[in-house]
Amino acid sequence: MATSTPAAPTGGQPHPAPARPPGKGAGEEPSHQARRNLLHRLDLGTVPYAFIAPFFLIFAAFGLYPLLYTFWISLHRVELSSMDTREWRGLANFTELFEDDRFWNALTNTFTIGVISTVPQLLMALGLAHLLNYRLRGSTFFRVAVLTPYATSIGAAALVFTMLFERDFGMINWGLGLFGIDGLDWESQKWPAQLAISTIVIWRWTGYNALLYLAAMQAIPRDLYEAAAIDGASRWQQFRTVTVPGISATIIFTIVLSTIGATQLFGEPLIFGQGPNGISGGADNQYQTLGLLLYEEGWKNYQMGRASAIAWAMFLILLLVFALQRVLARVTSRTPRKPRTS
């Protein structure tokens, strides 16, 4: 059955506007657009915070809360056997700590061991990274090999080095005897003990820092080395004027990491002591660090308040070191360099 279609209107008259569906008024489109704008603003303003929220939640639970709780404990007299029983002391734990000779002895030992281990460690890592930066056969093998000590557990490394530095049958004293040098009692003497502990730290962390330096060196543009070579700079001059300034940020980063590690030094001296002397840092506390003193006060003497005060003292020392480092960095950056004269 045929159907007829209406003819198109003539005379240039427009088509009549379609009728609006029922239930949709004229104000629906602006409200819909406003809703879309609101969702867009919420998307831009809240979604980034949603992505980073897990980190802050985990940090608040496992970082900020323990830090604040430790400070609260440091203001009380608390024993490990009865943590729920607290006696308010205020800052008495801190004042007694600063009057304790053992604290200053541990602080001095921490500083000396940190210097003895950090300075050679970073210098050796810098030289090792410079060698690995060259095109060598089997470079991947050497890069993995220098990282092997870092992958070794602290217990295994400290135990092996303790056997090497053993007084009667250690390989170090045996090697000294070949040159006519009497063997040392590495554990009972202050400086030999600190040197032995520093050797363990150097062995474990040199390869790790070397790989950090190597990654920074490979990011330096080769054009700088080519320009320096064209100007007649030797290998040593290229290393001093191009490589070291190019990785200065990484060097500062490793210094900060080494400072934190030296302040928290615990496992190496504990195992080096081979028994009860490990907690006290030797019979005369000759190599007791702040970490060992904290452990002795909290888990041997059961004084958690004093142990918490030591922990916060370590934290404040690190803040002071970082503040001094920032001040020195700003002073150095603002100091004008004198032009070279030929």
Compute the average pLDDT: 84
The low-pLDDT segments are: 1-9, 23-27, 338-342
H and E string? HEEHHHHHHHHHHHHH
Give the N-terminus to C-terminus distance in angstroms.
108 Å
Radius of gyration from CA coordinates: 33 Å
Outline, from the CA principal axes? Answer: flat
Strand fraction equals: under 5%
Order of strands in the sheet with most strands: 1-2
Q: Tell how many strands the DSSP assignment holds.
A: 2
**Which architecture of one domain per CATH?**
Orthogonal Bundle
**Major sheet size, sense and barrel closure:** 2 strands, antiparallel
The number of helical runs is: 14
Instruction: Report the structural category.
Output: mainly alpha
CATH superfamily of one domain: MetI-like
Which range best describes the helical content: under 10%, 10-25%, 25-40%, 40-55%, 55-70% or over 70%? 55-70%
CATH class of one domain: Mainly Alpha
Using the coordinates shown, work out and report the CATH topology of one domain: MetI-like fold
Topology:
Blueprint: H1 28-74, E1 76-79, E2 82-88, H2 92-98, H3 101-132, H4 139-151, H5 154-164, H6 171-178, H7 190-218, H8 222-230, H9 235-246, H10 248-263, H11 267-272, H12 276-280, H13 290-300, H14 304-334
Antiparallel strand pairs: 1-2
What do you see in this structure?
The chain has a two-stranded antiparallel sheet. Helix 8 (222-230) runs antiparallel to helix 9 and helix 13 runs antiparallel to helix 14. It has 342 residues and is mainly alpha-helical. Residues 1-9, 23-27 and 338-342 have low confidence and may be disordered. The chain is built from 14 helices and 2 strands, in the order αββααααααααααααα. The termini are far apart. This is Sugar ABC transporter permease.
